[in-house]
Amino acid sequence: MSEAAQTRLILVRHGQTQWNLQGRYQGRADTPICTVGLATAQRVAVMLRGCEATVLLASPLQRARATAEVIGRRLGDLGSVVDERLTEIDFGQWQGLTQAQVKTHWPVLLRAWKRAPDSVGFPGGERLADALERLRHFLSCPPWGTAAAPRCVIAVTHTGPIRLARLLAEDRPLAHYRQVASQAGAAYEFDWDPPGRLRSAGHRLLK
Which residues contact 189 (CB under 8 A, 6 or more apart)? Predict the structure, then answer.
């Protein structure tokens, strides 16, 4: 694969919401970014200002879109494009609940989620395999196409897609999902090659 064909793909986790600070499962709940999250977004935007990105993508959820807006302004008013495939895992009935509340209603399922996350289907939600398939589709059929791939793309997304991307890049199984860290405002760099191969570029840009 020639160097010109590679795209630098930077996945950014959105800034915090009040639910993040309260330790609640968010999933598809469209919670707004909070003051702390805006400050986090501004820090990551400063860190990314020299990356020369020409494409800025965001999950449809407002916490990701708000983070992308902050980044886009820092990059010279680069507009963001929403891609549904960057959305968070659907936690179903767990959304809005703390871990203690989940434990009260689904103790066995919560234990399985911690020990064997690839085996769990969230009540009224989805499985990790569903989210992985969505991510694979994004990588194999990216919105920027393959004929003239950009040199650098920033995608603002969530914990789930970032963890799954790191598993893909490192060729690790879904069972390792909970072993992968993803902090608010952290940015991870990958090399993307058509038709969708993802490789870790080897370092996290921001804690």
Answer: 8, 9, 10, 200, 201, 202, 203, 204, 205
8 in a domain, yes or no? no
Q: What is the largest CA-CA distance in the chain?
A: 54
Which residues span the domain enclosing 62? 15-151+159-206
Domain count, the chain: 1
Residue 9 lies in a domain: no
The CATH number linked to 185 is 3.40.50.1240
Which residues, at least 6 apart from 16, have a Cβ–Cβ distance to it below 8 Å?
Answer: 33, 34, 36, 37, 40, 184, 185
Structure tokens belonging to residue 98: 């703390």
Q: Could you give the dihedral angle defined by the CA atoms of residues 38, 39, 44 and 50, in that order, rounded to the nearest 10 degrees?
A: 100
Q: Is 0.90 topped by the overall pTM?
A: yes
Q: Who contacts 124 (Cβ-Cβ below 8 Å, separation ≥6)? A: 92, 93
Catalytic residue among 105, 137, 158, 176: 158
Catalytic residue list contains 158: yes
The SS3 assignment for 124 reads coil
Query: What's the token pair of residue 199?
Result: 């490789």
Catalytic site residue from 14, 105, 137, 203? 14
Is there a catalytic annotation at residue 14?
yes
Q: Strand 55-58 to strand 152-157: parallel, antiparallel, or no bridges (unpaired)? A: parallel
Per-residue model confidence as pLDDT tens digits over 40-77: 999 999 999 989 999 999 999 999 999 999 999 999 99
